[in-house]
Amino acid sequence: MSQSIPEIQLNDGLTIPALGFGTYRLNGNRGASAIQSAIDSGYRLIDTAYNYENEATVGEGIRRSSVPRSELRITSKLPGRYHEYDKAVTAIQESLFRAQLDYYDLYFIHWPNPKEDLYVEAWQALIDAQKWGLIRSIGVCNFLPEHLDRLEKETGIKPSMNQVELHPFFNQEEQRAYHQEKQIQTQSWSPLARVQNILDNEVIQSVADHYDKTVSQVILRWHYQLGSVAIPKSSSSHRQKENLSIFDFSLTEEDMNRIHQLTQPDGRMNDQDPAEYQEF
Ligand SMILES: NC(=O)c1ccc[n+]([C@@H]2O[C@H](COP(=O)([O-])OP(=O)(O)OC[C@H]3O[C@@H](n4cnc5c(N)ncnc54)[C@H](OP(=O)(O)O)[C@@H]3O)[C@@H](O)[C@H]2O)c1
């Protein structure tokens, strides 16, 4: 049984659900069915990106679902190759055309690409697109504190959210503390670490046994209690519902800490350090 998802208010006033749905690798007809199923199961926050090549699939899933557009929060992201101002504006328009939407609730810069050093220009395009009504709330992904500081210093406007790699093997303690100080909402990508070496983790399994929950549910509850919005992806309607059912139990501080102990300094899945990694 799923429960209703609590809401969170962002620093610009937009409210979003505290748990969302990831769509990376959900494409085409099967992807649209999976997205429809997620929405009909109770997800209201749906994450896509220009580079996933599935904004059209997400739009189709929304239209097939039984939920009005106004009740949904849809996020997309600007690719690195379009950070120049004019290209960024065109990409945002293109994102909307692909999804057949009039607006995105949230739009993010996908990666800072610091070697190119155009992310402040891209941010200005997001600020303007928000003024024009194309986007309700503007955020970033994979921004380190130094990148966030520059946005605020050079434009006076800080992001509402920062979506970062976050899972039990990489708990982002310092980054989360920085977000809290700046009132920027943390969002967790790959919240289940893409289920690589995690579903059979003995520590999490023993916590899950104690609460009569699954390993995935315990991990997603851990994100929720950290104050981070997890966006697990699943192609299966059964696992989508399983992942929603995390609001009827609470992890003790001791169990939260047992999961924190799994974090490693090099715990990123693919060594994608935003100071170095570039995505176009
Ligand atoms: N901003 C960024 O740079 C960035 C980077 C990566 C991802 N993202 C976003 O974050 C979303 C989530 O991350 P992700 O897709 O990389 O990984 P994830 O959500 O951590 O894991 C997805 C994998 O877990 C499996 N799974 C889901 N629920 C399960 C359950 N209850 N039991 C067993 N297996 C389960 C899925 O398989 P099935 O589909 O077969 O259920 C899939 O293989 C993405 O979809 C994307 O929207 C953003």
From TrEMBL:
The record marks 77 as: Lowers pKa of active site Tyr. The active site is at 52 (proton donor). GO terms for molecular function: oxidoreductase activity, acting on the CH-OH group of donors, NAD or NADP as acceptor. The keyword Nucleus does not apply. The keyword Oxidoreductase applies. Keywords: NADP, Oxidoreductase. Substrate binds at residue 110. Gene3D superfamilies: NADP-dependent oxidoreductase domain. Residues 19-262 form the NADP-dependent oxidoreductase domain. Belongs to the aldo/keto reductase family. This is 2,5-diketo-D-gluconic acid reductase.
